[in-house]
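Discussion board: Methods & Data

I've been asked by a reviewer to show the raw model output for two of the constructs in my manuscript, not just the figures. I'm not sure how much to include, so I'm pasting the format here to get opinions. Each protein appears as its amino acid sequence followed by a line of discrete structure tokens. Is this the kind of thing reviewers expect to see in a supplement, or should I convert it first? Here is construct A:
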Amino acid sequence: MQPRERFIKALERKPLSGRVPHFELVFFLTMEVFGKVHPSHRYYEQWQQMSEQERALHRADMADIYIQTAELFEHSAIFLHPNPGTLDETMRLLSLIRDKTGDKYFLMLHGDATFGIPDGNHMVDFSYRLFEDEKNLKQEAARNVDQALEKADKLAQQGFLDGFALCSDYCLNTGPFLSPALFAEYVTPYLARLIQGYRERGFYSIKHTDGDIMPIIDQLVDAKPDALHSLDPQAGVDLSEVKRLYGSQVCLIGNVNCGLMQTGTDEEAAAAVRDSLHAGMPGGGYIFSTSNCIYTGMALERYQMMLDIWRQEGHYPDA
């Protein structure tokens, strides 16, 4: 069974034997491993001035980095970060990776269109609009979903993409940016329509948000994503409890404590890995990953240790 098939079986909460599937939302340590800058960290101000031959070389190099990362670390899925992010270039990169790998890997793109936590330059204005510009804000939310689904129509016609990671962050470590009542008004209906639209077009949806999701997790699950990521232990999210409450409704991804992976002792990091495996695996419907990604500044050796434990202990019994 190909990694892509195993990933889909986990998303669909179907029984698996062998090793639990694994992927990371992003693996940024490409310089340490391959001596190459990660595709999303490259600068393409001169892209329009490049010859097509130069662009083709960049595309091929980016595709190779994604594929080599998946092969080396045994990822079942590849989350592409096309750069530049135009739809045409995105489709060319998808085509290139499919040509090189066939159906080996589950391919996904960022595809969220819902309101996340505003940045510091827009937080005050957005907060005012929640109460003073309700009609226009909701119209904007609906337009964002419409535009995302229009893009999905074109990607569905190409036929190379498997799904979307919905990466609007809703929560801080202390709870959601919006109250549950406001979240139900300004996010949940649009999230549900986006996910349903993707499903109708044949795509899976993985809803990502860091932070303490517990005050709104019922709304997230009710929107019917195929999976929730990242189940952030640094915000107090207990994977065992989430599994007990919602494991029959949605696949769970993540929970290996990134803070301990970066700054904890070896013993603390190893315990975080084992805790996530032991909490997430029972009954299936779990995909192993960190609670965010393998980001710049995390020691490569820690990620390798995490994978060593997974290879030794992350196994379902043979059917």
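Construct B, same format:
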Amino acid sequence: MIEMQTNLGTITIELDFENTPITAKNFQRYVDEGFYDGTIFHRVIPGFMIQGGGFEADLVQKASHEEIENEADKGGKNIRGSLAMARTSDPHSATSQFFINTVDNKFLDYTSKSPDGWGYCVFGQVIEGMDVVDKIAKAPTTFSGGHNDVPVEDIIIERVTSVTESSTVNS
């Protein structure tokens, strides 16, 4: 379980290590390193998704680790509350940036191992805090620093940590 504390509330996420081990381990690595602490949700599109994990305030991009293999063919669907990797037009270009789907986005799902069919790898699910996701999705946005859909006021990812639940501990 991952706990993402933002200046608008806390989002709890369960990662899918079973189906998307490369992607889940990549995200976990960034969490363990404290990489996401102090980053912002830099792209907010109502009725679509919220994106973060790559920029600090004032749209200063953070240096990330190497790109990872796209596991969208093994992951879940881009449904409301799912956590997926952001990438460029290159299907295998994901690094640290992620997004949370605020609605079902079937058009982002894997369809084939072709440039247009790879889709976006879902590697986790919000299990608590969709009210916070929805609050973020309603933030007013603007064009800033060469980017569209940037929240007018910073939405800060203050701290991201791994948490354990007593109900999941094997005895």
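Answer (T.O., handling editor elsewhere):
This is acceptable in a supplement if you add a one-line summary per construct. For B, something like: The chain has one domain: 2-164.
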